[in-house]
Specification:
Chain lengths: 334, 397
């Protein structure tokens, strides 16, 4: 029994964290809000070079052949930085789905391209009405009633929409499933949702941690009535509640990634627990952060809103807390 | 990360489970916080001790098995899973014993620990006073130096002392330096309750049990403690009691008192209750509440595995143990609330169950007891201050 990351896993995550601290600071995220792609120029290729994007892909196609547990802490770091790149969907969901279910030729071709950073694949799960990064995707993995399809962009009609998070380029997509595009049945789609829920939960924990860090920093500095507002018990209790929410969500998220790696029969249940807890935690922390910042938090000049708006988007992506609690109830209560 | 148990640990679990299946009382004992129930619980404690299950993590010479922290977790999981009795000895074995191991002389360790494990001495905690609850450092009970007799004369009052009416000994803090204030000048004393100058008065608790007590000291004498430990004495240094007490409260707040097995077993029973009654109760939200309690119990169990991994590898949880205390105590309230919602209009019944098998309503009793969790061992308001100041680094003033 050992419930902790290995030193290698922590070192890898720290290397990513160091990169993001330099290349994905709030100023870079603001650039992504304003530019055409919603992404940080040049950053994806850096992540590709580190092996992060192809972490779950086999070594034969340029991946690292590692497991979900090796990726989850990195995705958490991506959340901490509000990384405006499709890391968790591509590295965490699309790559293993194509790896496990596409025919050999497709898998080799698409995974090689993804691992080399020359193309991206967009993901459309049935749980989500919107697809992120549809424009420019070389392929789509899209869910229909009969499972996951690997779909060419030529036959996908894309209708852009505007997200509250300016770096999230979301679209509705319209397409016609056919047996020719079918990649796997409903169990493969269910597994994709479990991965998506787990990695989105990891991102939410990262976002929550950054919002809490911003908050504790601010309330220690901001003075009212002649003292730092962080000395007031009401503020202290808000911050303690925020920490409680996120610290008790994290173990569920790490365990979900472990269970996916181990192909545990309860992996789906564990993913739902993780997403329910992380969505709730990000919601609680976001509101506390907003409240403790007072007026400054309600501006676009201050950075809090970058993290808050990403959290709002991810809280319901890949299933809300309520929907995942219902899944837990169905599984545990019958 | 490896969430599997070793073959040895599995064997240990099987041994625990088999012993508990054979010996755990069925039907369950009445509450150990009543005079009648207490005697039955003491019989149970002696049975545990005889087969070396009373203090599994202690060294064998003190009555334990030298079990690892992991094995202790396994034992606790099996103990609660079996529905075995509450531990009336817990204030001694979980709160005082770690301090005796850390601060006690060899003579104190050798005398007190085996007697505590065997249930020969029963310890209650003497922290709270009528005017010192959350503000523990504001306590006024004093120990006055008696040089001639080589010890201390105690004066003052302790209160809300759990099982004080049944215990044989008290551990507590007394002001030994009359010129001191706050947490300075306090001494941690071990006090037999049968000596002259000690009066114990029991009183009823909110949940109907009589286990609470107030303890009055009127010149009772405790020696320095370098002689025969049987007469009581000082644990640690004179005027150094605050440090000793803080070591004890962190074990009360942290891992040692509230093992995750307690909550995973309780939520398993809650799930059973839902299966029996969830279909007939008119409460659309209760299913969600039960699922949330299940998730929270899992989160607590995993959080504990992470803590234990850290402790085993030399990383102390420190002030983070306050997070732990807030979480389990509030989880305990929520899971009992969910159960009472399932009982609906019958939730108020003190005795409950089918005719012929009526027992004390465990959910009502458990709910009432759970309400004490956010209060004892340092209120959750104090714990939140600790988290904010010592973990998150917010300014004290």
């Amino acid at each position: 029994m050992r419930f902790a990351f290995t030193q290698d896993q922590l070192d890898f995550a720290e290397a990513v964290s160091d990169l993001l601290a330099k290349e994905c600071d709030p100023a870079a995220v603001r650039v992504a809000w304003e530019n055409d792609t919603g992404r940080v120029p040049g950053l994806w290729s850096r992540l590709v070079e580190m092996g992060v994007v192809g972490l779950l892909a086999p070594e034969g196609v340029g991946g690292l052949g590692m497991g979900e547990i090796d990726l989850v802490r990195i995705v958490y770091e991506a959340g901490r930085a509000a990384l405006p790149e499709p890391l968790s969907t591509i590295a965490g969901v699309v790559v293993p789905a194509v790896r496990d279910h596409a025919n050999t030729a497709d898998a080799e071709r698409f995974l090689s391209d993804v691992c080399a950073g020359t193309s991206t694949i967009a993901l459309g799960l049935a749980a989500n009405p919107l697809v992120v990064g549809a424009a420019g995707a070389a392929m789509f993995v899209l869910e229909a009633d009969d499972g996951l399809h690997l779909v060419d962009p030529d036959v996908v009609e894309i209708t852009p929409e505007q997200s509250v998070d300016g770096s999230r380029r979301v679209s509705r997509v319209n397409w016609n499933p056919s047996s020719a595009t079918l990649m796997c049945g409903p169990s493969g789609a269910a597994e994709a949702l479990d991965r998506a829920a787990t990695f989105t939960a990891a991102e939410l924990c990262g976002l929550a941690d950054t919002m809490l860090t911003l908050t504790t920093g601010y309330v220690a500095e901001r003075k009212q009535f002649g003292v730092p507002i962080g000395s007031f018990q009401a503020i202290k209790h808000h911050c303690a509640n925020a920490m409680l929410a996120v610290e008790f969500a994290k173990p569920l998220v790490w365990r979900a990634a472990y269970s996916l790696t181990q192909r545990d029969p309860d992996a789906s249940l564990h993913a739902s627990m993780a997403k329910a807890a992380a969505s709730d935690a990000a919601d609680v922390v976001g509101r506390i952060a907003m409240q403790c910042h007072g007026g400054i938090g309600y501006t676009v000049e201050y950075d809090l809103h970058l993290y808050l708006k990403r959290a709002w988007s991810l809280i319901s992506q890949d299933g809300s807390a309520a929907s995942h609690r219902r899944r837990v109830a169905d599984r545990v209560l019958g | 990360m490896d969430l599997t148990w070793s073959a040895d640990e599995d064997a240990f679990r099987a041994e625990c489970r088999a012993w508990l299946a054979e010996h755990a009382p069925n039907p369950p004992l009445p509450s150990g916080d009543t005079a009648e129930g207490f005697a039955l619980h003491m019989e149970w404690e002696r049975k545990l001790y005889a087969d070396r299950w009373a203090v599994v993590s202690w060294p064998t010479e003190h009555g334990g098995r030298g079990a690892s922290l992991w094995e202790w977790l396994i034992f606790e999981e099996e103990y609660y899973r079996a529905g075995a009795p509450q531990r009336v000895t817990q204030n001694g074995i979980f709160l005082l014993a770690p301090s005796i191991y850390e601060f006690g002389t060899q003579a104190q360790q050798d005398y007190y620990l085996p007697r505590m494990a065997a249930g020969e001495d029963l310890w209650c905690q003497g922290w709270s006073e009528p005017n010192a609850g959350s503000d523990l450092a504001g306590l006024t009970s004093k120990a006055v130096r008696d040089d001639e007799a080589g010890g201390w004369r105690l004066h003052g009052q302790k209160t809300w002392t759990t099982r004080g009416a049944f215990c044989t000994h008290l551990f507590g803090l007394f002001r030994t330096d009359p010129d001191s204030t706050r947490h300075h000048g306090l001494t941690y004393l071990l006090v037999p309750l049968d000596i002259d100058g000690v009066t114990v008065r029991g009183f009823g608790r909110l949940d109907g049990d009589e286990g609470f007590a107030e303890v009055f000291f009127d010149g009772a004498f405790v020696p320095d403690g370098d002689g025969d430990p049987a007469a009581g004495g000082v644990l640690g240094e004179v005027n150094g009691g605050w440090g000793v007490a803080m070591a004890t409260t962190s074990s009360e707040r942290g891992l040692t008192l509230r093992s995750p097995g307690r909550f995973t077993a309780a939520t398993a029973r809650l799930v059973q209750l839902y299966r029996e009654r969830g279909g007939s109760v008119d409460d659309p939200g209760v299913r969600d509440a039960v699922a949330q309690a299940w998730i929270d119990a899992e989160a607590y169990a995993l959080y504990t595995l992470s803590d234990v991994t850290g402790i085993v590898e030399g990383r102390s949880p420190g002030a983070r143990s306050s997070l732990n205390k807030i979480f389990w105590s509030e989880l305990d309230v929520r899971l009992h609330e969910a159960a009472l919602r399932l009982l609906g209009g019958e939730s108020e019944l003190v005795e409950w169950g089918p005719d012929g098998q009526r027992v004390e309503n465990p959910w009502l009793k458990g709910y009432q007891f759970s309400l004490s969790g956010p209060i004892y061992a340092g209120t959750n308001e104090i714990q939140r201050n600790i988290v904010a100041e010592r973990v998150l680094g917010l300014p004290r003033k």
